[in-house]
């Protein structure tokens, strides 16, 4: 390994990976020489996810909104980074580089100097001034129009996204901003991923990374969608890419700049150390597993599932989130798919649908509710619940790309109990992953290995279900903090410790041997259940029965009518906001 700093030995050099998740941020101190994890710290976001009301005012938000306050991200730098360094027991001077990863697409409107619009006093009460989290799905109508116009015009970039553009991505959310709050859209001089905004705060330099630009920003073959196409969507949208996105796209692992004195004050780290360009939590994870070969699919399992893998050829997979040249590592085509609800589904069920006696039993036994439900669900064989579920409680990211879809459970009887439903929901998410794997293989991209990362890999029962349903061994990322480790690997490259990401991954990343193998008897039963899942999947998801869309439309209409009849909240009387339901 080359000498990384004249004053720091290669043995002592460390880097820090900072993983910005949905509810918290984590900092991880990693030794450059071998990837050893020396210390970590987590900081919970003070504002969390704003999906029912706006924290600044208490103003109710419409359905399908999910906002965040970017000040929470800065608090992670102030709190988690110094705490991780202290736990690691190292001197800050040993740190030679920092890198970050973020949920995506989490995007926010800012001024030309990077100031978020929500920091402006006159805009603090306006929902559109805040960061829109990845699971903000209120821009589905805009996403539908983006897709339909691209299809009718034969836009060459549409097949790179499986034929549909998601409501979760940059363009749909920006078009919603324009149409519902044109004043805020006009004031926004930049429309930027949080992944790039946080690097701006660390370095003082605005950059854009190849990952979010490619997967979330429709940047393909060196360009964004044309001005002519954007004008056809909305005349006021014609200059969106030129005015609010235009910036050089930097490759992953490259150096975005140096840590400023201000950011050094936040973090306690030395000013001037390397800061890598931004990245996405899922896409930094394959290096943490040293799983960069074509066909090695990495499933990052948490609140949602994201499935990423490299390929040596360009292929079109219906319903994939995207394929990007260099989207995971330079020199390969990076593929992405995913599920919008996994851990969130299990949490919803535990929080809102489990009788009190289960909570009491878990407390008596010193278990979490999830541990108790998993234990009881595992006591019966596959198929014994008589249930099948659809894992769309937060919509469908792949392969249907439709966030107006919703969940369903079939087979309920008076004998059904909470662990039965819990098991059906776990199985449903595994079926959703199998749909994605099948789509990749049908598209000419064999999935040769399935590697698991993320918080849910701690649930052994769930892992065995995934192995049985997919009929594949599961290899587990050795790190419990894989995205943060992946970011640290990119920090090492940006600092010059390794020539490229594969070299750093070979030294610092690691994957455990196959920890779960499919049980043939269980897999046979799951094949039968999967066939039933596919029938429901296509019946409700491909237009045979549009009841989920009709229910969603009815809900929105009733809420609109109720809101129109209600007296205005005090803050809305101060300055009406165009186009947003109060």
The strand order across the widest sheet is 17-18-16-15-21-22-23
- Any idea what the radius of gyration is? 23 Å
Q: Total number of β-strand segments?
A: 23
Alpha plus pi helix count:
19
Q: How far is the N terminus from the C terminus? A: 58 Å
Decide which structural class fits the backbone: alpha+beta
- Into which percentage range does the β-strand content fall? 15-25%
Largest sheet: 7 strands, mixed
Q: Unreliable stretches, pLDDT < 50, 5 or more residues? A: 570-582
State the shape.
globular
Helical residues, percent = 25-40%
Overall pLDDT metric: 94
Topology diagram in text:
Layout: E1 14-20, E2 24-31, E3 37-44, E4 53-54, E5 59-60, E6 67-68, H1 71-88, E7 95-102, E8 107-110, E9 131-132, H2 140-153, H3 170-180, H4 182-187, E10 190-193, H5 194-203, E11 208-209, H6 210-216, H7 227-233, H8 240-245, E12 249-250, E13 255-258, H9 261-267, E14 274-276, H10 285-289, E15 296-301, E16 305-311, E17 322-325, E18 333-339, H11 343-352, H12 356-365, H13 369-377, E19 388-390, E20 408-410, H14 418-442, E21 449-453, H15 460-470, E22 474-477, H16 482-494, H17 501-508, E23 511-516, H18 520-541, H19 547-565
Parallel strand pairs: 1-7, 7-14, 11-12, 15-21, 21-22
Antiparallel strand pairs: 1-2, 2-3, 4-5, 6-9, 8-10, 13-14, 15-16, 16-18, 17-18, 19-20, 22-23
């Amino acid at each position: 390994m080359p000498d990384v700093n004249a004053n720091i030995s290669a043995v002592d050099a460390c880097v820090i990976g900072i993983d910005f998740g949905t509810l918290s941020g984590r900092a991880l101190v990693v030794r450059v020489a071998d990837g050893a994890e020396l210390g970590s710290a987590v900081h919970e976001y003070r504002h969390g996810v704003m999906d029912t009301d706006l924290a600044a005012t208490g103003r109710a938000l419409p359905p399908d909104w999910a906002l965040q306050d970017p000040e929470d991200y800065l608090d992670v730098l102030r709190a988690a980074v110094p705490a991780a360094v202290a736990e690691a027991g190292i001197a800050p001077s040993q740190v030679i580089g920092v890198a970050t990863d973020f949920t995506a697409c989490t995007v926010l409107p800012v001024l030309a100097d990077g100031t978020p619009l929500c920091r402006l006093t006159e805009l603090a009460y306006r929902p559109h001034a805040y960061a829109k989290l990845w699971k903000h799905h209120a821009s589905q109508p805009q996403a539908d129009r983006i897709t339909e116009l691209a299809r009718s015009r034969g836009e060459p970039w549409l097949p790179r996204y499986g034929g549909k553009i998601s409501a979760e991505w940059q363009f749909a959310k920006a078009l919603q901003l324009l149409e519902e709050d044109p004043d805020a859209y006009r004031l926004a001089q930049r429309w930027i991923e949080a992944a790039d905004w946080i690097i701006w705060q660390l370095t003082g330099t605005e950059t854009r990374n190849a990952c979010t630009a490619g997967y979330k920003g429709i940047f393909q073959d060196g360009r964004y969608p044309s001005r002519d196409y954007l004008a056809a969507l909305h005349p006021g949208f014609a200059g969106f890419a030129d005015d609010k996105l235009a910036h050089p796209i930097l490759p992953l692992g490259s150096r975005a700049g140096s840590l400023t004195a201000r950011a050094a004050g936040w973090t306690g780290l030395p000013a001037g150390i390397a800061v890598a360009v931004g990245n996405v939590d899922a896409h930094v994870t394959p290096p943490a597993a040293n799983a960069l070969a074509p066909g090695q699919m990495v499933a990052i399992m948490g609140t949602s599932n994201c499935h990423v893998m490299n390929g040596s050829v360009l292929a079109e997979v219906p319903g994939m989130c995207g394929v990007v040249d260099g989207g995971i590592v330079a020199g390969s085509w990076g593929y992405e798919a995913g599920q919008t609800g996994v851990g969130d589904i299990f949490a919803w069920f535990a929080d809102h649908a489990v009788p009190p006696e289960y909570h009491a039993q878990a407390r008596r036994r010193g278990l979490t509710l999830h541990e108790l439900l998993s234990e009881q669900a595992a006591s019966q064989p596959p198929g014994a619940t008589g249930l099948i579920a659809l894992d769309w409680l937060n919509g469908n990211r792949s392969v249907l790309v439709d966030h107006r879809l919703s969940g369903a459970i079939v087979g309920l009887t008076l004998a059904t109990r909470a662990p039965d439903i819990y098991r059906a929901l776990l199985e449903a998410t595994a079926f959703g992953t199998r749909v994605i794997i099948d789509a990749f293989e049908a598209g000419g991209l064999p999935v040769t290995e399935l590697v698991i990362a993320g918080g849910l890999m701690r649930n052994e029962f769930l892992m065995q279900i995934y192995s049985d349903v997919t009929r594949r061994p599961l290899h587990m990322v050795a790190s419990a903090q894989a995205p943060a480790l992946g970011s640290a690997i990119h920090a090492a490259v940006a600092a010059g410790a390794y020539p490229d990401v594969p070299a750093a991954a070979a030294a610092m990343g690691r994957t455990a041997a196959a920890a779960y193998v499919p049980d043939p008897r269980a897999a046979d039963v799951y094949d039968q259940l999967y066939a039933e899942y596919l029938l429901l999947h296509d019946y409700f998801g491909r237009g045979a029965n549009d009841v989920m869309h009709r229910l969603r439309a009815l809900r929105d209409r009733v809420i609109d009518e109720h809101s129109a009849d209600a007296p205005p909240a005090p803050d809305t009387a101060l300055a009406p906001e165009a186009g947003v339901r109060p």
